[in-house]
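re: ur question from the group chat, yeah i did fold both. here u go
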Amino acid sequence: MELLTRENIQLDIEAATKEQALAFVADLAVKRGYSADAAGVLDGLKERESQLSTSLMSGIAIPHTRHASVQDPAVLVVRLASSVDWTDDNVHVLIAMLVPDGGDNTTHLQLLAQVSRALIEDDVQRAVIEGTADEIFSELAGRLN
Protein backbone atom coordinates (compact mmCIF):
# COMPACT_ATOMS: atom_id res chain seq x y z
CA MET A 1 0.00 0.00 0.00
CA GLU A 2 1.30 3.46 -0.87
CA LEU A 3 2.26 5.82 1.90
CA LEU A 4 0.56 8.84 0.30
CA THR A 5 -2.06 8.77 -2.42
CA ARG A 6 -4.19 11.51 -3.91
CA GLU A 7 -7.15 10.01 -2.02
CA ASN A 8 -5.30 10.49 1.29
CA ILE A 9 -5.68 14.26 0.83
CA GLN A 10 -8.95 15.74 2.01
CA LEU A 11 -9.77 19.46 1.80
CA ASP A 12 -12.31 21.80 3.41
CA ILE A 13 -13.21 19.38 6.18
CA GLU A 14 -15.56 20.67 8.87
CA ALA A 15 -14.26 20.24 12.41
CA ALA A 16 -14.94 22.48 15.40
CA THR A 17 -12.30 21.00 17.74
CA LYS A 18 -8.95 19.27 17.70
CA GLU A 19 -10.64 16.03 18.75
CA GLN A 20 -13.08 16.22 15.82
CA ALA A 21 -10.17 16.82 13.44
CA LEU A 22 -8.26 13.83 14.84
CA ALA A 23 -11.43 11.70 14.64
CA PHE A 24 -11.72 12.59 10.95
CA VAL A 25 -8.11 11.43 10.45
CA ALA A 26 -8.86 8.15 12.26
CA ASP A 27 -11.98 7.56 10.17
CA LEU A 28 -10.06 8.36 6.99
CA ALA A 29 -7.39 5.82 7.97
CA VAL A 30 -10.10 3.13 8.12
CA LYS A 31 -11.76 4.30 4.90
CA ARG A 32 -8.42 4.18 3.07
CA GLY A 33 -7.58 0.70 4.43
CA TYR A 34 -4.64 1.57 6.69
CA SER A 35 -6.50 0.41 9.80
CA ALA A 36 -9.68 -1.44 10.74
CA ASP A 37 -10.03 0.35 14.08
CA ALA A 38 -10.79 4.10 14.02
CA ALA A 39 -11.11 4.21 17.81
CA GLY A 40 -7.63 2.69 18.20
CA VAL A 41 -6.09 5.16 15.76
CA LEU A 42 -7.84 8.05 17.52
CA ASP A 43 -6.61 6.81 20.91
CA GLY A 44 -3.05 6.67 19.57
CA LEU A 45 -3.24 10.17 18.11
CA LYS A 46 -4.74 11.59 21.31
CA GLU A 47 -2.14 9.85 23.46
CA ARG A 48 0.66 11.43 21.42
CA GLU A 49 -1.00 14.87 21.64
CA SER A 50 -1.25 14.52 25.43
CA GLN A 51 2.55 14.26 25.60
CA LEU A 52 3.33 17.37 23.53
CA SER A 53 1.43 19.36 20.94
CA THR A 54 2.25 18.47 17.33
CA SER A 55 1.51 22.00 16.11
CA LEU A 56 4.47 23.29 14.13
CA MET A 57 4.08 26.56 12.26
CA SER A 58 1.81 28.49 9.93
CA GLY A 59 -1.27 26.64 11.15
CA ILE A 60 0.16 23.18 10.39
CA ALA A 61 0.20 20.23 12.79
CA ILE A 62 1.78 16.81 12.32
CA PRO A 63 -0.23 14.43 14.51
CA HIS A 64 1.29 10.95 14.50
CA THR A 65 1.11 7.59 16.18
CA ARG A 66 2.65 4.16 16.31
CA HIS A 67 -0.28 1.95 17.16
CA ALA A 68 -1.24 -1.72 16.95
CA SER A 69 -4.44 -0.80 15.09
CA VAL A 70 -2.43 0.56 12.14
CA GLN A 71 -1.78 -2.11 9.50
CA ASP A 72 0.29 -0.12 6.97
CA PRO A 73 2.23 3.14 7.26
CA ALA A 74 0.33 6.14 5.91
CA VAL A 75 0.46 9.89 5.49
CA LEU A 76 -2.94 11.61 5.48
CA VAL A 77 -3.34 15.30 4.71
CA VAL A 78 -6.44 17.05 6.02
CA ARG A 79 -7.08 20.74 5.47
CA LEU A 80 -9.88 22.07 7.61
CA ALA A 81 -12.50 24.56 6.45
CA SER A 82 -11.51 26.78 9.40
CA SER A 83 -8.85 26.71 12.08
CA VAL A 84 -9.27 24.86 15.37
CA ASP A 85 -7.53 25.47 18.69
CA TRP A 86 -4.56 23.10 18.92
CA THR A 87 -3.31 23.59 22.48
CA ASP A 88 -0.81 26.34 21.67
CA ASP A 89 -1.81 27.45 18.18
CA ASN A 90 -4.63 27.61 15.67
CA VAL A 91 -4.33 24.79 13.15
CA HIS A 92 -6.05 24.31 9.81
CA VAL A 93 -3.77 21.72 8.14
CA LEU A 94 -3.00 18.27 9.55
CA ILE A 95 -0.32 16.09 8.04
CA ALA A 96 -0.95 12.88 9.95
CA MET A 97 1.49 9.99 10.06
CA LEU A 98 0.36 6.51 11.06
CA VAL A 99 2.78 3.64 11.62
CA PRO A 100 2.15 0.08 12.83
CA ASP A 101 3.39 -0.63 16.33
CA GLY A 102 6.09 -3.22 16.81
CA GLY A 103 9.55 -3.68 15.43
CA ASP A 104 11.99 -0.82 15.44
CA ASN A 105 11.15 2.86 15.39
CA THR A 106 12.87 3.50 12.03
CA THR A 107 9.78 4.00 9.85
CA HIS A 108 8.19 6.38 12.34
CA LEU A 109 11.34 8.48 12.70
CA GLN A 110 11.98 8.52 8.95
CA LEU A 111 8.44 9.76 8.28
CA LEU A 112 8.75 12.51 10.87
CA ALA A 113 12.07 13.61 9.38
CA GLN A 114 10.77 13.55 5.79
CA VAL A 115 7.65 15.55 6.60
CA SER A 116 9.58 18.05 8.72
CA ARG A 117 12.18 18.56 5.97
CA ALA A 118 9.46 18.98 3.35
CA LEU A 119 7.64 21.61 5.42
CA ILE A 120 10.75 23.80 5.53
CA GLU A 121 10.30 24.43 1.81
CA ASP A 122 8.09 27.39 0.88
CA ASP A 123 6.51 25.56 -2.08
CA VAL A 124 5.39 22.71 0.16
CA GLN A 125 4.01 25.06 2.82
CA ARG A 126 2.12 27.06 0.18
CA ALA A 127 0.66 23.91 -1.35
CA VAL A 128 -0.61 22.43 1.91
CA ILE A 129 -2.01 25.76 3.14
CA GLU A 130 -3.74 26.95 -0.02
CA GLY A 131 -3.16 24.55 -2.92
CA THR A 132 -5.41 22.03 -4.57
CA ALA A 133 -5.25 18.36 -3.63
CA ASP A 134 -3.30 17.71 -6.83
CA GLU A 135 -0.76 20.41 -5.93
CA ILE A 136 -0.38 19.02 -2.43
CA PHE A 137 0.13 15.53 -3.80
CA SER A 138 2.65 16.79 -6.35
CA GLU A 139 4.68 18.60 -3.69
CA LEU A 140 4.64 15.81 -1.09
CA ALA A 141 4.56 12.50 -2.98
CA GLY A 142 8.12 12.62 -4.30
CA ARG A 143 9.44 13.56 -0.88
CA LEU A 144 7.64 10.78 0.98
CA ASN A 145 7.01 7.74 -1.25
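okk and heres the other one u asked abt
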Amino acid sequence: MSGRHEHPVQLRWSDTDVFGHVNHARVLGLLEDARLSMVDSSPGAGIILARLEIDYLRQVQYRVGEHLTVATSITRLGRSSIGMRQELTQDGEVALRAEMVLVAFDYAADASVPLTDDQRAHWSRWLVDRPGDGGVAGPPAG
Protein backbone atom coordinates (compact mmCIF):
# COMPACT_ATOMS: atom_id res chain seq x y z
CA MET A 1 0.00 0.00 0.00
CA SER A 2 1.66 3.17 -1.11
CA GLY A 3 -0.63 6.14 -0.71
CA ARG A 4 -2.49 8.70 -2.66
CA HIS A 5 -2.23 10.19 -6.10
CA GLU A 6 -2.05 14.00 -6.27
CA HIS A 7 -3.15 15.86 -9.38
CA PRO A 8 -2.95 19.66 -9.82
CA VAL A 9 -6.03 21.29 -11.31
CA GLN A 10 -6.48 24.77 -12.76
CA LEU A 11 -9.72 26.64 -12.23
CA ARG A 12 -11.09 28.86 -14.99
CA TRP A 13 -13.07 32.06 -14.63
CA SER A 14 -15.95 30.33 -16.43
CA ASP A 15 -16.13 27.76 -13.60
CA THR A 16 -17.77 30.34 -11.33
CA ASP A 17 -21.50 30.92 -11.02
CA VAL A 18 -23.68 33.90 -10.14
CA PHE A 19 -22.77 33.49 -6.45
CA GLY A 20 -19.05 34.00 -7.17
CA HIS A 21 -17.86 30.54 -6.22
CA VAL A 22 -16.96 27.54 -8.36
CA ASN A 23 -20.18 25.83 -9.43
CA HIS A 24 -20.77 22.34 -8.04
CA ALA A 25 -21.16 20.84 -11.51
CA ARG A 26 -17.77 22.24 -12.62
CA VAL A 27 -16.08 20.47 -9.73
CA LEU A 28 -17.16 17.12 -11.18
CA GLY A 29 -14.94 17.79 -14.19
CA LEU A 30 -11.95 18.48 -11.94
CA LEU A 31 -12.47 15.17 -10.15
CA GLU A 32 -12.82 13.37 -13.48
CA ASP A 33 -9.58 14.93 -14.77
CA ALA A 34 -7.78 13.65 -11.68
CA ARG A 35 -9.26 10.14 -12.08
CA LEU A 36 -8.34 10.02 -15.77
CA SER A 37 -4.75 11.01 -14.97
CA MET A 38 -4.47 7.74 -13.03
CA VAL A 39 -5.74 5.49 -15.82
CA ASP A 40 -3.18 3.42 -17.68
CA SER A 41 -4.43 2.74 -21.19
CA SER A 42 -4.34 -1.03 -20.89
CA PRO A 43 -5.05 -1.91 -17.23
CA GLY A 44 -7.53 0.93 -16.81
CA ALA A 45 -9.51 0.18 -19.96
CA GLY A 46 -13.14 -0.75 -19.42
CA ILE A 47 -13.45 0.99 -16.03
CA ILE A 48 -16.70 2.93 -15.54
CA LEU A 49 -18.04 5.16 -12.78
CA ALA A 50 -20.93 3.35 -11.08
CA ARG A 51 -21.53 5.47 -7.96
CA LEU A 52 -20.59 8.97 -6.80
CA GLU A 53 -21.28 10.71 -3.48
CA ILE A 54 -19.90 14.20 -2.72
CA ASP A 55 -19.76 16.25 0.45
CA TYR A 56 -19.25 19.95 -0.26
CA LEU A 57 -17.47 21.17 2.89
CA ARG A 58 -16.72 24.78 1.91
CA GLN A 59 -16.92 27.09 -1.07
CA VAL A 60 -14.22 26.91 -3.70
CA GLN A 61 -13.17 30.37 -4.88
CA TYR A 62 -11.69 31.23 -8.26
CA ARG A 63 -8.36 33.07 -8.07
CA VAL A 64 -6.31 33.93 -11.14
CA GLY A 65 -3.38 31.54 -11.59
CA GLU A 66 -4.14 29.44 -8.53
CA HIS A 67 -3.63 25.69 -8.79
CA LEU A 68 -5.59 23.37 -6.52
CA THR A 69 -4.91 19.72 -5.79
CA VAL A 70 -7.14 16.69 -6.07
CA ALA A 71 -5.81 13.88 -3.89
CA THR A 72 -7.10 10.44 -4.82
CA SER A 73 -6.76 7.16 -2.99
CA ILE A 74 -8.12 3.68 -3.51
CA THR A 75 -10.08 2.53 -0.48
CA ARG A 76 -11.08 -0.94 -1.65
CA LEU A 77 -10.38 -3.44 -4.40
CA GLY A 78 -13.25 -5.87 -4.88
CA ARG A 79 -13.87 -8.65 -7.37
CA SER A 80 -14.99 -6.24 -10.10
CA SER A 81 -15.12 -2.90 -8.28
CA ILE A 82 -12.74 -0.23 -7.05
CA GLY A 83 -13.59 2.02 -4.10
CA MET A 84 -12.10 5.49 -4.49
CA ARG A 85 -11.91 8.66 -2.40
CA GLN A 86 -11.03 12.09 -3.79
CA GLU A 87 -10.45 15.35 -1.92
CA LEU A 88 -10.13 18.80 -3.45
CA THR A 89 -8.18 21.23 -1.27
CA GLN A 90 -7.91 25.00 -1.30
CA ASP A 91 -6.04 27.14 1.24
CA GLY A 92 -4.80 23.98 2.95
CA GLU A 93 -8.36 22.82 3.74
CA VAL A 94 -10.47 20.10 2.19
CA ALA A 95 -13.23 21.85 0.25
CA LEU A 96 -14.97 18.70 -0.93
CA ARG A 97 -14.71 14.98 -0.41
CA ALA A 98 -16.04 12.42 -2.89
CA GLU A 99 -16.52 8.69 -2.44
CA MET A 100 -17.08 6.63 -5.55
CA VAL A 101 -17.18 3.14 -6.95
CA LEU A 102 -15.61 2.27 -10.28
CA VAL A 103 -16.43 -1.02 -11.99
CA ALA A 104 -14.56 -3.13 -14.54
CA PHE A 105 -16.93 -3.32 -17.47
CA ASP A 106 -17.24 -5.29 -20.70
CA TYR A 107 -19.03 -3.01 -23.16
CA ALA A 108 -19.76 -5.78 -25.65
CA ALA A 109 -21.45 -7.92 -22.99
CA ASP A 110 -22.94 -4.87 -21.24
CA ALA A 111 -21.91 -6.34 -17.89
CA SER A 112 -19.37 -5.98 -15.12
CA VAL A 113 -16.36 -8.30 -15.20
CA PRO A 114 -13.75 -9.28 -12.62
CA LEU A 115 -10.69 -7.05 -12.35
CA THR A 116 -7.71 -8.55 -14.13
CA ASP A 117 -4.44 -9.13 -12.30
CA ASP A 118 -2.96 -6.20 -14.27
CA GLN A 119 -5.83 -3.90 -13.27
CA ARG A 120 -5.55 -4.98 -9.64
CA ALA A 121 -1.79 -4.31 -9.64
CA HIS A 122 -2.31 -0.92 -11.34
CA TRP A 123 -4.93 0.38 -8.88
CA SER A 124 -3.31 -1.11 -5.77
CA ARG A 125 -0.50 1.45 -6.11
CA TRP A 126 -2.85 3.94 -4.44
CA LEU A 127 -4.56 1.56 -2.00
CA VAL A 128 -4.66 3.01 1.51
CA ASP A 129 -5.99 1.87 4.84
CA ARG A 130 -9.22 3.58 5.79
CA PRO A 131 -9.34 5.18 9.25
CA GLY A 132 -11.59 3.24 11.59
CA ASP A 133 -11.27 -0.02 9.62
CA GLY A 134 -8.65 -1.47 11.95
CA GLY A 135 -5.92 -1.10 9.34
CA VAL A 136 -7.79 -3.12 6.73
CA ALA A 137 -8.43 -1.72 3.27
CA GLY A 138 -11.91 -3.23 3.26
CA PRO A 139 -13.51 -6.48 2.21
CA PRO A 140 -13.71 -7.46 -1.42
CA ALA A 141 -16.94 -6.31 -2.96
CA GLY A 142 -18.72 -7.09 -6.22
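fwiw on the second one: The chain has two helices and six strands. Residues 132-142 have pLDDT under 50 and may be disordered. idk if thats what u expected
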